[in-house]
Amino acid sequence: MGMNIAIDGPAGAGKSTIAKMVAQRLHFIYVDTGAMYRTIALSLLRSGTDCEDERALSEALEQMDIRIGYENGTQQMLLNGENVTGLIRTEQVSQMASISSAKPIVREKLMDLQRTLARENDVLMDGRDIGTRILPDAQVKIFLTASVQARAQRRFKEMQEKGIPCTLEEIQSDIEERDYRDMHRDTAPLVQAEDAVLVDTSDMTIDEVTQEIVRLVEQKRSGM
């Protein structure tokens, strides 16, 4: 069995960026679970599936073949054989992922794949419910967060650099709405696991956060 690190937290807290750096430092496989849900969301948007229609959602999921590949150590998402890695980071896909990932049948579709990867490898996995539901026995659990204002500023800067028109107010509103939806959904709501270490990144650099998590992992290893 591999060693598992679970990183949970709200949207925009920097989970993916930090997780990739920590995994590289520790030589772990990084599993971006958010990319998995985004891939499903992209497929649902393409097919025009109504997520509230359970039968239609079930039929759409049955027709999806979701796989993970790795290219130069970077996770690639494959949807029915198509590499969609570069297509799943839009705001539209993000919003659909937040809605569809709350559906039990969507989460069940991906859980077996996620747990198999963790069983067979040293894995760092990030998401919303990794430490509470997907990998409840993970040796290290981190709850990564930041203030709404800090997350909105980061997202705004990212969008500006990409030349995507937006306002800081719109982004902050979207983050607040997504936080509420993620924390209040019936299935696998966003919550800090009892044994997770809280890391607030609001006033920390990426390097500082990475070093802190690596320190926590090495501390755990030395005590095993």
Describe this structure in words.
By secondary structure, this protein is an alpha/beta fold. It has one domain: Rossmann fold (3-Layer(aba) Sandwich), CATH 3.40.50. It has nine helices and eight strands. It starts with a strand and ends with a helix. 35% of the residues are buried. The model has no long low-confidence stretch (mean pLDDT 92).
In brief:
By secondary structure, this protein is of the alpha/beta class.
Write the layout of secondary structure elements.
Blueprint: E1 4-8, H1 15-26, E2 29-32, H2 33-47, H3 54-62, E3 66-71, E4 74-79, E5 82-83, H4 91-100, H5 104-120, E6 123-127, H6 130-134, E7 140-145, H7 148-161, H8 168-184, E8 197-200, H9 206-223
Parallel strand pairs: 1-6, 1-7, 2-6, 7-8
Antiparallel strand pairs: 3-4, 4-5
Helix pairs in contact: 1-9, 2-4, 2-5, 7-8
CATH topology: Rossmann fold
Taken together, the total number of domains comes to 1
Which CATH class is shown?
A: Alpha Beta
Biggest β-sheet strands, sense, barrel: 5 strands, parallel
Low-confidence stretches: none
Q: Give the end-to-end Cα distance, rounded to a whole number of Å.
A: 14 Å
Assigned CATH architecture: 3-Layer(aba) Sandwich
Which percent range describes the beta-strand content? 15-25%
Sheet with most strands: strand arrangement = 2-6-1-7-8
Helix content: 40-55%
Mean pLDDT: 92
Determine the structural class based on helices, strands and strand pairing.
alpha/beta
DSSP strand tally: 8
- What is the name of the CATH superfamily? P-loop containing nucleotide triphosphate hydrolases
User: What value does the Rg take, in angstroms?
Assistant: 17 Å
In DSSP terms (H or I, runs of 4 or more residues), the helix count works out at 9
